[in-house]
Amino acid sequence: MRTIGIIGAGHIGSQVARLAVSNGYSVVISNSRGPETLTGLIEGLGPNARAATSFEAAQAGDIVVVTVPLKNYHAVPVEPLAGKIVIDTNNYYPQRDGHILELDNESTTTSELLQAHLPSSKVVKAFNHIYAAELTIHGQPAGTENRRALVIAGDDQGAKDVVAHLLDQFGFDTVDAGPLKEGWRIQRDTPGYGPRRTAEALREDLAAAKRYHDR
User: Fold this and answer.
1) Which residue spans within 67-183 are E strands per DSSP?
2) Is pLDDT at 3 greater than 90 in this prediction?
3) Is the dihedral of CA 124, 116, 128, 22 positive or negative?
4) How distant is the alpha carbon of residue 206 from its chain centre?
5) Strands 122-125 and 49-51
6) What is the distance between the alpha carbons of residues 148 and 159, in angstroms, rounded to a whole number?
7) How far, in Å, CA of 115 to CA of 47, rounded?
8) What is the SS3 assignment for 139?
9) Is the distance from CB of 205 to CB of 192 less than 8 angstroms?
10) Checking DSSP bridges between strand 173-176 and strand 149-154, what pairing results, if any?
11) Cβ atoms of residues 179 and 155 within 8 Å
12) Helix (H) or strand (E) holding 203
């Protein structure tokens, strides 16, 4: 897998693009305003990156990162993502996204919403609990003492293995929270959301997480 498609060129998307090109991947990145608005970013990323539409980014990527405001997830193209691993970085912020009943009553999670929208894709939650700027400064080689860890969640073990390998290349250990339905354990306002954590500490954070209605 040598090409990473990125739908969303904001803080997380642009930083993932930098990590990808620095690790030998080609990047095809899109935003909601059109490829012509990404000229500056592409110049900074170099010759292994190009701007495209979201459909083209979805089509080109061996792995595709969806990093758009949650309220816009219905705009993610479905057909070109069939059968592909899709990394979901979404978080739910009602003040930005409006209220979503299924998330307010905690009957589902952000990544399960995206999975329902992309029924033939293999959605893996990742990159949602780290500040964007830290993605390119906190990575360390495998085996480094106190290496930072990041959480993943997903329903397809093979897809999770691929994403864990990608995280290792990017400089992070991986903690598997389980299926997508367990992704709430690393949503906003949980212990592991935001701070730098080792794998051991992050597992403790996941275990300590509480549903909003239980607080």
Assistant:
1) 85-88, 122-125, 149-154, 173-176
2) yes
3) positive
4) 18
5) unpaired
6) 21
7) 32
8) coil
9) yes
10) parallel
11) yes
12) helix 199-208
Q: For the chain, how many residues are written?
A: 215
Number of domains comprising the chain: 1
Over its C-alpha atoms, the chain yields an Rg (Å, rounded) of: 16
Name the pTM for this structure: 0.96
Q: Round to whole Å and give the CA distance between 108 and 178.
A: 15
Q: Which domain holds residue 89?
A: 3-214
Give which of 215, 212, 186, 183 is closest to 106, Cα–Cα: 212
What does the alpha-carbon distance between residue 159 and residue 122 come to, in Å, rounded to a whole number? 6
Name 61's Cβ contacts closer than 8 Å, sequence gap at least 6. 3, 4, 5, 6, 28, 84
* CATH (domain of 190): 3.40.50.720
Per residue in 148-182, pLDDT tens? Answer: 999 999 999 999 999 999 999 999 999 999 999 99
User: Phi and psi at residue 24, in whole multiples of 5°?
Assistant: 90, 5
> What is the DSSP-derived secondary structure letter of residue 142?
T
**CA pair distance 58, 82, nearest whole angstrom:** 9
Quickly count: other Cβ atoms within 10 Å of residue 77's Cβ: 18
